[in-house]
Amino acid sequence: MSFLEYLSKRQDHLLELAIEHAQVVALSIAIATVIGLALGILVYQRPWWAQVVLGITGVFLTIPSLALFGVLIPFVGLGYKPTVIALVMYALLPIVRNTVTGLRGVEEAIIDSARGMGMGRWRRLLRVELPLAWPVVMAGVRVSTLILVGITAIAAVVNGPGLGEDIFSGLARIGGANALNLVLGGTLGVIALALLFDAFFAGVARLTTSKGLRP
Question: Are the CB atoms for 157 and 198 separated by under 8 Å?
């Protein structure tokens, strides 16, 4: 069976897997963005704590995905839970790092002006610093999202949702009928999702960034 014939017959199945894949990535990046923003805001003015947090989140990103999924199984079992936990861990570093970098990059003169206008710490953060740092923060979110789209495919080893199911099924029977089609279909689906997510977050970044800061 040719690859085009395979796609025609399996398009509903591939679409279902792609939706599952997108859902778990969206949930994980949403959780990671909330946690990463909070951590970045808490530590960006505390250099020592920033180094500790960035070091820990950096270690998360160096753990091989197969090993991390395996370690999580005894604690949370198979399926959705280990997938989301692992993905959130992998997504944190770019978001925390870019939040810290973006907030530290706000010019001191601007902060002094806001302070002179009577703005308190949190009002200054929400009205001045975070909006100016937002393009850098969103760049971190986009990087994390692309990382997660790829790693989600590996979650199939712990019965996680997504296109990895077809990829690993094809690899398990390589040389058999439709094995290559399974791998190719799943891989192209992952690439397509990565492009869609990146375009989506590029649009979100543009819509949520002040006009004066847009390129």
Answer: no
